[in-house]
Design goal:
Elements lengths: L1 H7 L1 H8 L12 H66 L2 H8 L2 E4 L5 E4 L2 H8 L15 E4 L2 H7 L10 H8 L6 H12 L5 H8 L9 H14 L15 H7 L9 H22 L6 E2 L1 H9 L6 H15 L7 E2 H10 L3 H13 L6 H12 L5 H11 L9 H13 L10 H17 L5
Parallel strand pairs: 1-3
Antiparallel strand pairs: 1-2, 4-5
Helix pairs in contact: 1-2, 2-3, 4-5, 7-11, 8-10, 10-20, 13-14, 14-18, 16-17, 16-19
């Protein structure tokens, strides 16, 4: 220990070796004195330099360790903040009222020439409000927006969708109209996502106030106004109640004169469901258009609102059989065919239940047959194999019917199975009540 201190401390070394230069002061030989003095200075200098470099090395290592520890702490802190934020935003998506979801994920506040303001979503904002684990940009959260003045060119840049180029509805919305979505339009879109396709005709008839089997912009706008009035108990974010976003232009044209038929509403329904599914699929980084079996399982499970330990149990089964890297993979078209088929999950459940009541298990070939009979869709064999592995709780290679129905219903609902007050249903109820009152009045002529 003493030697190490001597090496790393130049002062100690000089004190120890200072007498060396005087060891031969009583010698009669001048040559020997000079040699001894030179050798002493050389040894002293060498040890001092060695001690100095050891000291610097020790100091540098200490600094580097401190910097590395700081980096590790920073990485852990950033990871914790991200995980906490994602969980918080997922809870908002799942459980909050629509106006709070809108206010949290909307990023643009427009100031009109008359001084009134309106908060809007762009297509990317809407997608983030629907898809779990998509983090909101920094400095944009609840009631914090990018504030801009009304200018068509500026709004065009702000509403340009970055993640929607491969989509139908959202890409067109951001390129052919102002690309903005108001609160009432947001609730209308949520309603379209919530309802089964077979109920679209009821919504269409409720919006067709004139009864001519066509929807005009004035009728659509009246429904929007009803939604706003029904949201009066919530925090209203707009002072300009007559404003409309890009959805009106998308549906009814630039001059808002186009009329919509039921078939066009159904096509709009198909387009928006296709777009949401495509953007969810792309989140998991497909390679050459295909997801690995592991990522496809995440694509199915992550929107089901399960606890993390349950999600990990599902994924372990996939990892054990297929690994995390791609085996054959699953394409978007195959995933879309599955999600299209299971939209009629209630009918599929009835058919599967008949097998179980008869004491029969459901192997993969029987499952494919049931799906084809009910939906007329032929699923990919490998996709069904991945699905069975995901939902096979006891490892017997057979389908767990209850687990299948539960997962698919949660996945299809995207959290919309939670009780919410969207305002749109109340607006339609008001329309029906008005129609009943009018019908009950005697006709005078």
């Amino acid at each position: 220990m003493f030697v190490y201190k001597a090496l790393v401390s130049p002062r100690i070394t000089l004190k120890l070796l200072a007498p060396i230069s005087h060891t031969n002061t009583h010698s009669n030989s001048r040559f020997n004195n000079n040699n001894n003095n030179t050798w002493g200075v050389f040894v002293t200098g060498t040890i001092c330099l060695t001690g100095y470099f050891l000291y610097k090395l020790r100091y540098t290592r200490h600094v580097l360790c401190e910097e590395r520890d700081d980096d590790v702490i920073k990485l852990k802190t950033d990871a914790f903040i991200r995980r906490y934020t994602l969980n918080y935003e997922n809870r908002i998506r799942m459980y909050s009222l629509p106006d709070k979801i809108f206010r949290y994920f909307a990023s643009i506040q427009v100031e009109y020439p008359d001084g009134s303001t309106e908060v809007y979503m762009n297509p990317d904002d809407f997608v983030r409000s629907i898809i779990p684990n998509e983090m909101q940009p920094k400095h944009v959260d609840l009631d914090h927006f990018h504030k801009v003045k009304w200018d068509s060119q500026t709004l065009k840049q702000l509403s340009a969708a970055k993640s929607t180029k491969s989509t139908r509805f959202f890409h067109t919305l951001s390129t052919q109209s102002n690309g903005l979505i108001s609160l009432s339009e947001y609730i209308f879109l949520l309603t379209i996502l919530m309802v089964p396709k077979r109920k679209l005709e009821l919504i269409f008839k409720a919006m067709d106030l004139s009864g001519d089997n066509l929807i005009e912009f004035d009728e659509f706008h009246k429904i929007e106004s009803l939604i706003r009035s029904r949201l009066s108990g919530l925090k209203v974010v707009s002072a300009n109640l007559n404003s409309t976003g890009g959805l009106g232009e998308y549906l009814f044209g630039k001059d808002l004169s186009k009329k919509l038929s039921l078939q066009e509403i159904e096509q709009f329904y198909d387009d928006i469901h296709h777009d949401i599914l495509k953007m969810e699929f792309d989140i998991y980084n497909p390679i050459n258009g295909r997801l690995s079996e592991y990522n496809f399982a995440k694509f199915i499970i992550n929107s089901c609102d399960f606890k993390q330990d349950k999600v990990e149990d599902y994924l372990k089964r996939i990892e054990k059989r297929f690994g995390k890297k791609m085996a054959k993979g699953v394409s978007f078209e195959e995933a879309e065919s599955l999600m299209t088929a299971v939209k009629d999950i209630d009918s599929i459940d009835v058919a599967l239940n008949m097998y179980f009541m008869g004491g029969l298990s459901i192997p993969q070939d029987e499952f494919l047959y049931v799906i084809k009979c009910i939906t007329k869709i032929e699923l990919n064999q490998h996709l069904v194999s991945v699905l069975f592995t995901l939902l096979d709780q006891d490892g017997d290679g057979m389908l767990s019917r209850k687990e299948f129905v539960r997962v698919i219903k949660r996945r299809s609902a995207r959290g919309f199975n939670k009780p919410r007050d969207l305002g749109f249903a109340r607006a339609l109820s008001a329309v029906f009540e008005c129609g009943k009152k009018v019908a009950s009045q005697p006709i005078t002529g």
